[in-house]
Amino acid sequence: RMTYICQQEGIEADQEVLAALAQAGEGSVRDSLSALDQAIACCGANKLDVKEVRGLLGMFSLESLQQVTQALAQSDSRRMLDLVLELESNGRSLQHFCRELARYFRNLIVAKVAGANTRLIAASAREQERLAEIAKDFSEEDLTRYLQITLDIFKDLQTSIQPRLHLEIGLLKLVYAGRMGTIEEALSNLGGGGGARPAVVPAPAASSAPAR
Hints:
Layout: H1 2-9, H2 15-24, H3 29-43, H4 50-57, H5 62-73, H6 77-89, H7 94-114, H8 125-135, H9 140-157, H10 163-178, H11 183-190
Helix pairs in contact: 2-3, 2-4, 3-4, 5-6, 5-10, 6-10, 7-8, 7-9, 9-10
C-alpha cells in the first residue's frame, strides 16, 4: 500500500525505507501510513532516506543493534558498558533502545527458525539475509534466553529512576548468560560425557564377629 502511495505522490522510497515505516506501524496499516506522512512532511524531499526516516522515528539501525550481538559473540563486557555510554551521550532513549533490542532478538530467532525471506519479519530482503547470517552464530536457546532477559530489562526501565544502571546490569547479564552451558551439556558431563565421575565408595567387608 505504501509503495502504491509513493508512486502516486512521486516519492522515491526503497524497500529499506518502507520496511522501517512498516515496522514503526507495529502491524497497523493506518499507523504505518501516518509514519509515511510524517516522513514525507519532515524530510522535505521527493526521496526518503532510510537514515533520516529512522532518526525521525527514533529507530535504531541494524548495524547499531548488531553491536550487542558482536559483544556477545566476543563475550566483551567492556563493549556493553561503552555502548550504554554512547547512547546516553547522544541523548538516545535507553528504554526505546531496549525495546528495539528485544525486537532485534525476536527477529534473530525467527530468522534462525524460518530462514531469510520470510513474511514473519518486517524488514527488507537484504536486512533479512543479514539477520539470518547473524543468527548462525547463536543457538535458538541462546537467542531465546537473550530475548527473555531483554524483556525483563525493558520492564525494569519503565519504572527505574536509574535507567543507565539498569541497562548496564542488564547488558552484562546478557554476556554472562552467553557463557552458561545448557542443561543437556551439564547432564552429559555428569553422565561421563566429559566431566569427572563421582567416586564410588566400596561397601564395607563382612565381619566374622557376632553382632551385638
